[in-house]
Design a protein that fits this description.
The chain is of the alpha/beta class and about 375 residues long. The chain folds into two domains: about 120 residues, Aspartate Aminotransferase, domain 1; about 200 residues, 3-Layer(aba) Sandwich (Aspartate Aminotransferase, domain 2). About 40% of the residues lie in helices and about 15% in strands. It has a seven-stranded mixed β-sheet with strand order 2-8-7-6-5-3-4, sandwiched between helices. A three-stranded antiparallel β-sheet has the order 9-12-11, with helices on one face. Strand 3, helix 5 and strand 4 form a beta-alpha-beta unit. The N and C termini lie far apart (about 45 Å).
């Protein structure tokens, strides 16, 4: 019988304070979503998408198949060309999510006898993609190029370095220029996940690599639209040869039903909206600064200059209780527990948005000050 075994596994997880449950926190102040620029809740963008769908005459609810069957269209290719232009790439290939894009790249490019070296704090989709490949897998200490270099020296075959521009749990940034210099020394290809920089950084929301003028030295870049852009989907940006390779070898692309026309319209409309409201990036930066200044008043540690701020509590049960206390005060702040993060680094993940009012940010930092003992080194280590 299956159910008794399932119940046993769930009870084991519950006893370890690891049981996950779906929750609904409607009515709380959002400090947890990835909707950094407020586009997911923008009525103006919603109306733009609806109007554009009507203008284009799309009467189709779904794609009807994969891109290689019935799911391709001239419009899909036009949107990909626009994405390539925004991300200063020769081509782009749209995927259904950032997770599937990372899975596609890491499972299809590295082959047997090749080497994947990934940051130990990289997102799960990077690690899962690496597991699906036949390549040798190694991790290096977070943002530690001194730990990375010896592993580059020992790598075999083609070497791929998988990193994020802004890390989803810590909110810190990759030392991208130094990493590129090191990768070129050892002829390694960088796979850069720009999930949390898409939209919030760079002209037109083009992400960190383009904003730093480093994009041409990075072989593969992955952009996600379900965070700051407020819609759904993702794309891989790179050479035209890379695009053709993924179309031919990436199983998450070949065997997945394509995004419906409405989603493609949403992607195009979101970037058009951001281009017309690029000042949202500065509004977000100001909110981050406000939080940072208040947080420094009760912590000697530095804060992140990004939308993601981590408040280390330690212990799954203790972190859950801390989140419950904040939610009772009206703040939607969620606990991030092990094994999602390393044991002992369980945390509250605070996400800042353009729509968070200054008074709300002040009240949140005051609540955190009361919640965290003054001796606690509570920000991300």
């Amino acid at each position: 019988m299956l159910d008794p075994w399932l119940e046993k596994k769930l009870k084991e997880r519950e006893s370890a304070h690891l049981l996950r449950k779906l929750t609904n926190t409607k009515g709380l102040i959002d400090f947890t979503s990835n909707d950094y620029l407020g586009l997911a809740r923008s009525k103006e963008l919603f109306d733009n998408i609806t109007e554009r769908v009507t203008q284009l005459g799309f009467l189709q609810n779904g794609a009807g198949g994969s891109r290689l069957l019935s799911g391709n269209s001239h419009y899909a290719e036009e949107v990909e060309e626009k994405m390539a232009g925004i991300f200063s790439a020769r081509s782009a290939l749209i995927f259904n999510s950032g997770y599937s894009a990372n899975l596609a790249v890491l499972s299809s490019l590295p082959l047997r006898n090749d080497t994947i070296i990934y940051d130990e704090r990289a997102h799960t989709c990077i690690k899962d993609g690496a597991r699906l490949s036949l390549a040798r897998r190694l991790s290096f200490k977070h943002n530690d190029l001194n730990d990375l270099e010896p592993k580059l020296k020992k790598s075999t075959g083609r070497t791929y370095i998988a990193v994020e521009s802004i890390y989803s749990m810590d909110g810190d940034v990759c030392p991208l220029k130094e990493l590129i210099n090191l990768s070129e020394k050892y002829h390694a290809t960088i796979i850069l996940d720009e999930a949390h920089s898409t939209g919030v950084v760079g002209n037109q929301g083009s992400g960190m690599a383009v904003s730093l003028g480093l994009h041409e030295r990075i072989g593969i870049r992955i952009y996600t639209f379900g965070k700051a852009m407020g819609v759904h989907g993702a794309c891989v940006a790179g050479s035209t040869t890379l695009r053709s390779y993924l179309i031919n070898f990436a199983r998450p692309f070949i065997y997945t039903t394509a995004l419906p026309p409405h989603s493609l319209v949403a992607i195009e409309s979101a970037f058009e909206y951001l281009a017309q409201h690029i000042g949202l990036q500065q509004v977000l930066h100001d909110k981050i600064q406000r939080y940072s200044e208040a947080a420094r008043a009760f912590s000697q540690d530095s804060v992140r200059n990004t939308s993601i701020q981590s408040v280390i509590i330690g212990g799954n049960e203790e972190t859950r209780r801390a989140a419950d206390r904040l939610q009772l005060q009206g703040f939607d702040v969620r606990p991030i527990l092990s094994p999602t993060v390393a044991q002992g680094s369980e945390r509250l993940r605070v996400c800042l948005h353009t729509f968070n009012e200054d008074e709300q940010i002040t009240r949140l930092t005051e609540a955190l000050k009361e919640l965290i003992p003054t001796h606690k080194d509570y920000l991300t280590p």
